[in-house]
Structure formats: C-alpha cells, structure tokens
Amino acid sequence: MKCRAAVLHTMGAPLPYAESRPIRIEEIELDPPGAGEVLVKIAAAGLCHSDLSVVNGARPRPLPMVIGHEASGVVAEVGAGVTQFKPGDHVVFVFVPSCGSCLPCSEGRPALCEPAAAANGAGTLLGGGKRIRLRGEYVTHHVGVSSFAEYTVVSQCSLVKVHDKLPLDQAALFGCAVITGVGAVVNTAQMKMGESAVIVGLGGTGLAALLGAIAAGARKTIGVDLLDSKLELARELGCDEVVRADDPDIVAKVKAWTKGGGHYAFECVGSEKAMELAYLLTRRGGTTVSSGLSDPQRRFTIQHVNLVAEERTIKGSYLGSCVPRRDIPGYIELFEAGTLPVDRLLSEKITLDEVNLGFDRLHGGETVRQLIMFD
Fold first, then answer.
1. In what helix (H) or strand (E) does residue 224 lie, and over which residues does it extend?
2. Is residue 291 part of a domain?
3. Is residue 325 included in any domain, yes or no?
4. What integer pLDDT is reported at residue 230 of this predicted model?
5. CA 99 to chain centre
6. Does one domain contain both 363 and 304?
C-alpha cells in the first residue's frame, strides 16, 4: 500500500529545520506484514528528544529513514502467526521489540533485548527485514517503529494492546515519555515512599519522572530546568521546589531543601553537563539515574573518591527498565484514576507537514510534547 510519511534524508542539517528541511513528506510504499508482523494505522505520534538526536546527528542512524518512535494507532492487518492482535485493536508502540528468548529477556529485562538492539541499530524490523520502499528502494526503519507515517509495519513484539476507551492522543504518550520517566523512578531507582527526588530536565520524560515520584510518595520533589515556563508547569503538577539549572546557588539550595541532597536525582536531558549536575545534587549514599541519550562522543566527569567514600550509585535507565506489557496497562490505570495526570504533558497538536517546524520548537525547549495527529 502507499501512504505519506516523514523521511529523514540528512542528519546535522543547519537550523532552523523549517528552512533546511532535513525531513521531507513523501509517498512511500509499504510491503504487507510478514510472519509475526502487523500493519498499523497511526493515530498520533509524539516528537521526542530521541528523534531530535537522530535529526541533529547526535545519534547516527542509517539513512534515508522514516522517523518516529512514540505513537499509538489501530491495527489494520496482521501477518501469519500473529495471534495476540486483530484488526481494530488499539495499540501503543514500544521502541525496543523484546524477542522474549535472549538472556536479558529471560532475566525479565526486555529493554535490554539483544536482537532488538541489533535490529534497531541496523534499521530493520526485529526479524531482520525492511518493509518500507521509497521510489522502489528500501529505506530504514526507526527503532522498529517509524511512526511519522499514515501507516507502518512493525513486529508484533513492538506493540502493546490498550483498551479502546483511552483517547489515542493520550495513549501515544505511554510508549516513550511516560514509560521512560515513570519507569526510571519505580523500576530503575525503585524509589521508596518518603524519599526525595531531584529531576534535572523538565521535558516530557522529566515531567513524567516527576509525576512518578509524586505517585510513589516522595517526601520532597525538586524540579531543575533552564526555562521558567517548565519550572512553572512542574509547580502546577505538584513539584515542591523548583530552581533554574544556571542558578549559582543551586547545589546549596537543593541540599538545604533536602537536608543533604536528593535520595535520587534523575537526569532527563541527555547532556553530560546535566549528568554532572544531577550527581552534585544527590546526597551521600544516594543514587543518580540517567535516562537521557547524549552524543556517543560525550563523557561526564565525577570525583572518584567521592563515589567511593560516600557510597554513591550511578545507574542508567533505558525504556524505564520496563516490562512493557506489564507497565503500560498499569500506568494507564493510574492515569485513569487521576494519579498520573500525563495528559498535562501535551503541548501542541500539529500536522505531518509541520514536522520540521516541530523539531525547531523542540530544539528551542519551548514545548513539552507535540503530537502529530493523523485522520
């Protein structure tokens, strides 16, 4: 079948993207879903910093590529052997398609699935194939999803079924922002009630981490960002204290508010400088958790003796250390109960043709979560 899609042709194009246009809206042709694969009609797709890191060249991927990884949609067709989904099902995409049989998957850590990592790096589906053609030539998939398109073909392992009463625009957020941010708190950090949390970076993932910390019963939450508008939104969402990241007294303020620093500090930017700051804001014996994806060439610096003498812990969190088919329905239930008001993360709804402009907004930090809406 043929449909419209956002195809990334150039990484590292000059800003503004609305003028350099690294992404072009083009007609693609999709092969039918193969064995174990599903054709999905996209309903909503979010613009995320992980997408931006591919557009700006910080996370190189093979091009040309149909971009996008956070989305929701409706199953249109299933391939041979697919028994968990049927046409009409509402689904959320997951950008790590767990194979279920490698060692990490067997240990209950599907976010670290080894075949998925290899497939995502190569720009293929989990089974190794490609299903997207542009002018007769196959192009690559973005982490097995490629959701900035009217339709996409994915592995059944890239989908989680959700109930059809949940609006699909809200459902899209659970595939990345929510599962990454909330998961960093409850899965990676395993934060306990009564502990304190400092969130460095208040984009979609950071604000989701804030909501997760509040839901987990944090004694004190502190939001850190460079933009006053995001600090204000964090306040509205229930954050106890906020502080600008460039405040020269930030370390002293956070230590005073938390009586020594946060039990946990969550780096949600994808910057080595943000990681260093998050570490400074963590208390003795505390844990610094990073869910941001920085340029592979970047390094962060800490004082080694401090790590040892204060028994600090540094942890990475990918996909919120989640089990998608367990966590996404659970987080949706918390949202519907009013415990996780993730709908507050929505900033703007845009069209597919506005995708380059949307990435300009995301780069400038003036937005939290934009959604591309499809009819």
1. strand 220-225
2. yes
3. no
4. 96
5. 20
6. no
**Cα–chain-centroid distance for residue 270?**
11
Distance CA 189, CA 320 (A): 10
Integer Rg of the chain from CA = 20
Question: Could you report the per-residue pLDDT of 339-356, keeping only the tens digit for each?
Answer: 999 999 999 999 999 999
Q: Are residues 146 and 13 in the same domain?
A: yes
237 token code pair: 């969402």
Instruction: Indicate the SS3 state at residue 320.
Output: helix
CA torsion angle 6 139 27 151 (round to 10)? -70
pLDDT tens profile 256-304: 999 999 999 999 999 999 999 999 999 999 999 999 988 888 999 999 9
67: closest CA among 366, 365, 358?
A: 358
The pair of three-digit structure tokens given for residue 205, joined into one six-digit string? 């993932």
As a whole number of angstroms, the distance between CA 88 and CA 76 comes to: 6
Dihedral sign computed on CA atoms, order 273, 274, 280, 284: negative
Same domain, 171 and 190: no
Query: Domain residues for 123?
Result: 2-175+341-373
- Determine, yes or no, domain membership for 328: no
CB burial readout 352-373, b (16+ within 10 A) else e: bebbbbbbbbbbebebbbbbbb
pLDDT digits (tens, 9 = 90+) for 202-219: 999 999 999 999 999 999
Q: Assess whether 195 and 87 both reside in one domain.
A: no
Instruction: Please tell me the pTM assigned to this model.
Output: 0.96
Phi-psi region of 189 (alpha: psi -120 to 50; beta: other; left: phi over 0): alpha
Beta carbons of 262 and 198 less than 8 angstroms apart: yes
